[in-house]
């Protein structure tokens, strides 16, 4: 840059940024203006200009920096660092900023010294953070280069500065800035894992090997220990944070295990010294928090065997234990720090302090306990004596917390109210309890038994005063904790690696029996009147959580893993469960399947067919094919036999005819290679399976190991858990336990109508029980379930009448319908639907007596209408097969669709009604799992679409007249997107021949499309893109229309057509992959339609309907398609995207529509780039159309996509 030009540039920058003045306001404007207005310009500036900008800002800071306000200085420093980052590869000059900062530090001025540290700190942070407008690849290239060239030098500068400042007793702000710089270097994302420095569970830090000398140098670690000892917060906290990072460095960094052991020794001894002196821990919460993190990192990054080998381990662990005990007695701070401390012990009595962090603490401690089986040598770990103490401390502190909150008048929240935190705390507890299960379980029983006795005694209490109610609330809270703890411990059975499985099952049974015994007391006496109390509701929530955990372990599919059969298989062959057995079978089949060459060789081998002829009468391949056809015909006869498939599914996991066909084909392919010596020689060498008889024998033996219903029931009943439950409570098997669970579920649904949260948890448990294949079949055998299927209305379950539970109705009826549809019983379905039949009949009767929708609205209860459609939606969602859907369809149509329209007309302006109604319609027309499969002669598909069209038109006529609303989404957009979703599902379900409508003059299709497009156009494009659900529904519909009804889209008026294409352009830029992919597919269909019918002569000789209209639209708005092509090029070339293939598909058709426009667009894209990048981009784009023809054949498309991928890779590799 010439001197005169440079001077003018500097003056212009000063005028824009206010840097010509020295006021705080003008300087603040400098940083804000550049960051907000010129951030993107920096990327596009010429390289030389960026270099000059960096030089100018550095000079300005040197001159004015020490005297500037701190916040102003920070803003300008950030601008300098971002400029350096963007100019990193422009020349060598920007990389000299580290040396320039060293020169500033040598000026002798504290202001310049602080400024240099600030610049380096901000530089590390800036390069470690992705820049908006730049790709992640470009960011990582700069970060990696900085890491390799400069980061170590910056860290050395930080260490030198810290030593100087410590010796000179400098100002605290200088020490703090130096420690901040060191922490920034140690927190750098060395390998591109996007590490969150604030994350508690920090990963191992991948420090480069060039740092080895500094990390192994004892003075480095000691420097931060010295800073902690000599300073208070915030410098002492920063020193501890640096120690946490150093404790996290990767194992392979050290030159040898000896050096790593020395490093660990220094670290542990440093922690020991801090614990000895107790300096800064009791006085400062931040120090305590970071020190606990440091202790936690010691366990996370080092094995227990390494820790016990450390010098002074015994003293260190005792000091940590003492710190834990002190923390247990402290009720002040532990809120944020217990997580780290339980990496070794626990601060659990300090529950007020620990409630936000105890999950992490338990997680670390569970890893410590889990490593005990791998501990070798004679060095004592001292864990055996302390783990039970920690477990006891946790449990007793939870119980005491209840009393403190309810009796002590504490202002702190009860941890039982924080469901997420509670589940996090209990996630790792099983590892601690099961470490010495006998001792820990005895302690648990010693606590829960007196509580149950007291709870039983309270049953007979009458006339409770305030003190008695408070004591009963404490008792309920403590029982809630114990029930939650027992449930979490039982869930730990799934992850337990203990060899004493039977003994642990017995203990599980003892603990579970106490909870099941509690159930008989909860709904008797005085406890029946406490359903509205928070403490009682917490107890019921804890019971539901216990049921979930018990179900996962001892009811249904999971219980098979506890079978003795699988224990033996696991010991000898590693086949720990039935899934492993099935996997082995499939692997054997796949191993025996031949390739093409092998198949041809076998087919020509007479020996194969001679053997088949001798054994099976299959003398040639024709005989084999004949057998296959006979088997297929036989299979077709039983495809609809639910009994056949239920048995096949029980024994072999073959749930339908597709699974049977797959197995048959695999077996027939197996017959083709029975005499292949190569295959059997390998099997003989590896597995001792010398011929096909051995293989088939093994497969049959494996099949025998797969359990049917009887076997699964036998395994469940043989569990020691049920033995204990039978001894104590008479619950001898899973059916008795399920009956007890169902009774509790029914009770909750009756008495907790006002507690939406508890009803939701109850229904979730019910749904989980019904969803499991085995547990669902077991439920069907219970009288309680049959009673619910016959008596499911609000007369029996009061929660249905509570408005807050309106959403829960869908889950309730979905679960009941799942159970109902497990058996083929049409008569039972009719009885189940009788209450809904009555509800529809009442609506029809009211409608016939009303002369207008307004009168029906006044006479029909809104809550009943809402409940009806929520119930129907749940039932419709449960129809997963053709059989079950047909039952619902035949019941619904034509009898009740008229009532649906009447309700919609009456409540069209009430979103509380229209939303569940429309969602039911959307679910009813959704062809999931091909459930909407009508006979070829059936008109049901067409009739169903006509009803959908009526619903859309009815709702659209109202919503299109809505103008100003206070809540656009709930009052307008939500109903529209559900309508668009319903239409999209109906048009993509493949059960309607849409040509029939035009052929017979039926306006259902045109009416539905017209009102849907008008509703879509009534939403501003900005709002469509702002609301994710609206965008997904809209673009899904547009994709379906452009694929199957392209002519209809083309025949729209110019405004509508332009809106559609403009919205597709915006959708392509969406960060949601599903939206951008749908838009790309829609654009491809439109462009292909135009190319085949306008650009090229149609194959049929006459253009398709809509081609002339589309040609006219593009004549009036010629920039529509080129703008879309421009957007696609910019996205593919300059941005990160995970759906490149989808985005590339429409580009060829857009190019072929008008190649002259493409050439102009290509030149515009090149010119828009910085001058230094233009030749490279042009050279890359020259390869785009290589070997690509002017057609849209699949091979030609694939070639274009391949070229585009190469162009993108080559361009981005050098930018």
Q: What can you see in these coordinates?
A:
- The protein is built from 64 helices and no strands.
- With 1215 residues, it is mainly alpha-helical.
- Among the domains are: 33-191; 209-333 and 349-372; 1034-1214, no CATH class.
- The two termini are 23 Å apart.
Question: What is the topology?
Answer:
Elements: H1 3-17, H2 24-37, H3 39-44, H4 47-64, H5 70-86, H6 97-105, H7 110-127, H8 136-168, H9 172-186, H10 212-216, H11 218-230, H12 235-246, H13 257-277, H14 285-301, H15 304-308, H16 313-328, H17 338-341, H18 351-354, H19 358-370, H20 387-406, H21 419-427, H22 429-435, H23 437-457, H24 466-491, H25 501-522, H26 534-554, H27 564-573, H28 578-592, H29 596-603, H30 606-616, H31 621-637, H32 642-652, H33 657-672, H34 677-687, H35 692-705, H36 709-717, H37 720-729, H38 734-751, H39 756-771, H40 773-780, H41 783-790, H42 806-821, H43 826-832, H44 834-849, H45 853-859, H46 862-878, H47 882-892, H48 897-906, H49 911-924, H50 940-959, H51 968-987, H52 995-999, H53 1004-1017, H54 1021-1026, H55 1028-1044, H56 1046-1050, H57 1054-1068, H58 1073-1095, H59 1107-1116, H60 1120-1134, H61 1140-1153, H62 1155-1167, H63 1174-1181, H64 1194-1213
Helix pairs in contact: 2-5, 4-5, 5-7, 6-7, 7-8, 7-9, 8-9, 9-12, 11-12, 11-13, 12-14, 13-16, 19-21, 19-22, 20-22, 20-23, 20-24, 22-24, 23-24, 23-25, 24-25, 24-26, 25-37, 26-39, 28-35, 31-33, 38-39, 38-41, 39-42, 42-46, 44-45, 44-48, 45-48, 46-49, 48-50, 49-51, 50-51, 50-53, 51-53, 51-55, ...
């Amino acid at each position: 840059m010439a001197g005169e030009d440079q001077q003018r540039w500097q003056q212009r920058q000063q005028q824009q940024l206010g840097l010509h003045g020295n006021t705080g306001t003008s300087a603040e404007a400098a940083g804000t203006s550049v960051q907000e207005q010129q951030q993107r310009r920096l990327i596009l500036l010429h390289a030389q200009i960026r270099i000059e900008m960096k030089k100018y800002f550095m000079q300005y800071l040197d001159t004015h920096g020490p005297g500037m306000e701190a916040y102003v200085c920070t803003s300008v420093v950030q601008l300098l660092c971002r400029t350096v980052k963007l100019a990193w590869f422009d020349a060598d000059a920007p990389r000299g900023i580290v040396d320039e900062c060293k020169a500033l530090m040598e000026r002798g001025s504290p202001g310049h010294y602080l400024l240099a540290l600030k610049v380096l700190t901000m530089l590390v942070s800036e390069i470690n953070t992705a820049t908006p407008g730049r790709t992640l690849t470009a960011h990582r290239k700069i970060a990696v280069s900085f890491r390799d060239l400069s980061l170590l030098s910056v860290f050395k500068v930080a260490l030198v500065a810290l030593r100087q400042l410590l010796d000179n007793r400098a100002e605290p702000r200088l020490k703090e800035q130096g420690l901040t710089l060191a922490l920034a270097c140690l927190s750098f994302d060395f390998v591109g894992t996007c590490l969150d420095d604030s994350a508690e569970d920090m990963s191992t830090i991948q420090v480069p090997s060039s740092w080895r000398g500094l990390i192994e140098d004892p003075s480095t670690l000691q420097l931060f220990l010295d800073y902690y000892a000599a300073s208070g917060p915030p410098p002492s906290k920063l020193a501890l944070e640096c120690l946490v990072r150093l404790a996290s460095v990767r194992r392979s960094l050290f030159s040898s295990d000896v050096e790593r052991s020395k490093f660990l020794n220094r670290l542990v001894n440093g922690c020991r010294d801090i614990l000895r002196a107790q300096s800064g821990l009791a006085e400062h919460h931040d120090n305590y928090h970071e020190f606990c993190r440091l202790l936690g990192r010691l366990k996370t990054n080092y094995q227990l065997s390494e820790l016990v080998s450390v010098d002074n381990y015994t003293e260190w662990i005792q000091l940590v234990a003492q710190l834990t005990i002190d923390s247990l007695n402290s009720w002040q701070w532990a809120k944020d720090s217990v997580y780290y401390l339980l990496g070794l012990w626990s601060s659990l009595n300090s529950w007020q302090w620990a409630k936000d962090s105890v999950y992490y603490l338990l997680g670390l401690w569970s890893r410590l306990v889990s490593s005990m089986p791998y501990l070798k040598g004679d060095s004592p770990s001292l864990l055996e004596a302390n783990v039970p103490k920690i477990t006891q401390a946790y449990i007793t502190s939870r119980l005491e917390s209840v009393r403190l909150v309810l009796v002590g008048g504490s202002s702190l929240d009860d941890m039982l109210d924080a469901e997420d935190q509670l589940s996090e705390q209990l996630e790792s507890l099983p590892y601690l309890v099961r470490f010495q299960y006998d001792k820990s379980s005895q302690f648990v029983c010693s606590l829960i038994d007196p509580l149950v006795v007291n709870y039983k005694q309270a049953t007979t209490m009458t006339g409770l005063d305030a003190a008695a109610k408070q004591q009963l609330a404490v008792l309920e809270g403590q029982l809630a904790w114990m029930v939650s703890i027992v449930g979490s411990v039982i869930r730990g059975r799934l992850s337990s690696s203990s060899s004493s499985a039977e003994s642990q099952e017995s203990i599980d049974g003892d603990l579970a029996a106490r909870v099941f015994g509690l159930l008989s007391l909860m709904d008797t006496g005085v406890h029946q009147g406490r359903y509205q109390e928070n403490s009682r509701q917490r107890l019921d929530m804890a019971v539901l959580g216990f049921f979930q955990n018990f179900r996962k372990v001892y009811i249904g599919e999971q219980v098979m893993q506890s079978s003795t059969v699988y224990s033996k298989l696991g010991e000898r062959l590693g086949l720990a469960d039935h899934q492993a057995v099935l996997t082995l079978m499939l692997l054997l089949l796949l191993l025996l399947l031949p390739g093409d060459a092998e198949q041809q060789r076998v087919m020509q081998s007479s020996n194969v067919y001679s053997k088949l002829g001798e054994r099976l009468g299959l003398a040639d391949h024709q005989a084999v094919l004949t057998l296959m056809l006979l088997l297929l015909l036989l299979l077709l006869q039983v495809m609809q036999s639910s009994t056949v498939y239920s048995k096949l599914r029980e024994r072999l996991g073959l749930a339908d005819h597709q699974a049977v066909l797959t197995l048959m084909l695999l077996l027939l392919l197996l017959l083709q290679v029975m005499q292949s010596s190569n295959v059997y020689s390998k099997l003989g060498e590896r597995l001792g399976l010398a011929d096909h008889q051995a293989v088939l024998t093994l497969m049959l033996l494996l099949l025998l190991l797969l359990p049917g219903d009887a076997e699964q029931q036998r395994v469940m009943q043989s569990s020691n858990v049920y033995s204990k439950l039978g001894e104590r409570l008479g619950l001898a098997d899973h059916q008795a336990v399920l009956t007890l669970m169902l009774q509790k579920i029914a009770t909750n649904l009756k008495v907790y109508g006002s507690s939406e949260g508890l009803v939701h948890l109850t229904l979730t448990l019910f749904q989980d029980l019904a969803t499991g294949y085995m547990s669902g079949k077991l439920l069907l055998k219970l009288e309680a379930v049959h009673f619910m299927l016959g008596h499911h209305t609000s007369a029996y379950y009061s929660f249905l009448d509570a408005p807050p539970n309106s959403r829960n109705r869908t889950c309730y009826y979905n679960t009941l319908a799942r159970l109902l549809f497990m058996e083929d019983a049409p008569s039972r379905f009719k009885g189940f639907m009788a209450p809904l039949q009555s509800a529809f009949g009442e609506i029809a009767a009211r409608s016939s007596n009303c002369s207008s929708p307004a009168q029906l609205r006044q006479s029909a209860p809104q809550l009943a209408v809402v409940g009806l459609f929520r119930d129907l939606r749940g039932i419709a969602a449960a129809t997963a097969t053709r059989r079950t859907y047909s039952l619902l369809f035949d019941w619904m149509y034509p009898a009740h669709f008229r009532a649906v329209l009447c309700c919609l007309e009456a409540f069209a302006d009430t979103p509380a009604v229209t939303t569940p109604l429309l969602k039911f319609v959307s679910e009813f027309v959704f062809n999931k799992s091909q459930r909407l499969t009508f006979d070829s002669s059936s008109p049901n598909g067409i009739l169903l679409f006509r009803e959908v069209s009526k619903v859309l038109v009815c709702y659209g006529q109202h919503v299109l007249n809505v103008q100003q609303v206070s809540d656009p989404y709930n009052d307008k957009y939500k109903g529209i997107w559900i309508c668009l979703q319903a239409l999209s599902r109906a048009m993509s379900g493949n059960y309607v021949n849409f040509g029939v409508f035009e052929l017979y003059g039926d306006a259902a299709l045109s009416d539905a499309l017209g009102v849907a497009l008008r509703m879509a156009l009534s939403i501003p494009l900005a709002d469509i893109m702002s609301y994710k659900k609206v965008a997904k529904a809209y673009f899904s519909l547009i994709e379906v229309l452009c694929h199957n009804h392209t002519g209809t889209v083309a025949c729209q008026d110019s405004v509508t057509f332009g809106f559609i294409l403009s919205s597709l352009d915006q959708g392509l830029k969406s960060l949601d992959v599903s939206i951008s992919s749908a838009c790309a597919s829609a654009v491809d269909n439109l462009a292909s339609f135009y190319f085949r019918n306008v650009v090229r002569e149609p194959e049929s000789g006459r253009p398709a309907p809509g081609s002339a209209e589309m040609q006219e639209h593009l004549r009036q708005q010629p920039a529509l398609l080129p703008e879309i092509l421009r957007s696609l090029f910019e996205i593919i070339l300059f941005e990160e995207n995970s759906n490149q293939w989808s985005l590339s598909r429409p580009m060829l058709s857009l190019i072929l529509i008008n190649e002259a426009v493409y050439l102009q667009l290509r030149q515009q894209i090149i010119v828009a780039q910085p001058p230094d990048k233009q030749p490279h981009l042009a050279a890359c784009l020259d390869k785009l159309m290589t070997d690509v023809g002017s057609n849209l054949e699949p091979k030609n498309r694939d070639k274009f996509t391949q070229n585009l991928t190469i162009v993108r890779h080559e361009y981005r590799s050098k930018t």
